[in-house]
Amino acid sequence: MMAAMPEVDRVAASRAAVAARRARAAIKAAVVAGDRSALDVAETAWREPESAEAGIRVPELLGSLRGMGPARVGEVLDRLGISAVKRVGGLGRHQRTRLRDWLRAREGVPGRGRLVVLAGPTAVGKGTVAGYIRQHHPDVLLSVSATTRSPRPGEVDGVHYYFVDDAGFDGLIERGELLEWAQVHSAARYGTPRPPVEAALASGRSVLLEIDLQGARQVRAAMPDAVLVFLLPPSWEELVRRLIGRGTESPEEQARRLETARIELAAQDEFDELVVNDDVPRAAQEVVDLLAVPSGGARPAGRAGSAR
Length: 308
Ligand code: 5GP
What we know:
The protein has about 300 residues and is α/β, with parallel strands linked by helices. The chain has helices at about 5-30, 40-45, 60-65, 70-80, 95-105, 125-135, 165-175, 195-200, 215-220, 235-245, 250-265, 280-290, 300-305, and strands at about 115-120, 140, 145, 160-165, 180-185, 190-195, 205-210, 225-230, 275. It is elongated.
């Protein structure tokens, strides 16, 4: 049995608890407002185990970030192998490393362009959203893929795709010129040319890749600071309607694409951001927000630390 706390100690302890709670709330508010980065909060927690930062629960810190509702927070915690009751200061070494990497990737590097991958099931409208961004945000580089499939009516070589034959595609792979590549719908091969992407990012220009799920996974492995966006249909029925409605593929091809879409929808939890394509300009704006080059942590300091 524990001895009862003397009255004065109890009052002091509850005052201290109130103060600590206020301090944690102020830190979260600063992260919500974008005045302080979550990474900075975590690093402070790990440097100073007695700090208010150390006492913040991990889900609360993640929940202070834009676009992170409870479901996304749960998915990220699962992916990082961190229990929802953990406080930032109480994380183990490997958990810290995983959280640090995740936060760094999310925050990006000042002065470097952001790489955003737009994936999602067939016919969800990735191409339409990407096309809208190409038209309205020419500052963003929309990567032009190489493909072995033949052009559809209206498609222009070098604009929509680089149309190459099998030998040409093999050459791109052999020379290491593709950032990622995949065979899509068990048919043609598609790949992202590496040099334009790297040049753009280094010059501070953001890049959008509109690719399939296998490609998105390769980009995650090759470039951990890429932001993976999964475009969702408003509903499965709507997806089927859009898929069949396009009418440019044979019934066998449609069935194959439907099956791919089912598998792809199940992969949404692997993504950093989910965007519902209910309205193209709105969905595009969400993606454009993610393409914004970070100013570098806290706002005023970030500007000072960015270029010079
Ligand atoms: P489509 O033939 O309809 O233009 O494209 C079929 C699929 O290929 C789409 O899901 C599209 O996202 C994907 N795709 C287009 N370019 C690339 C690429 O460079 N890499 C990968 N992995 N997939 C791509």
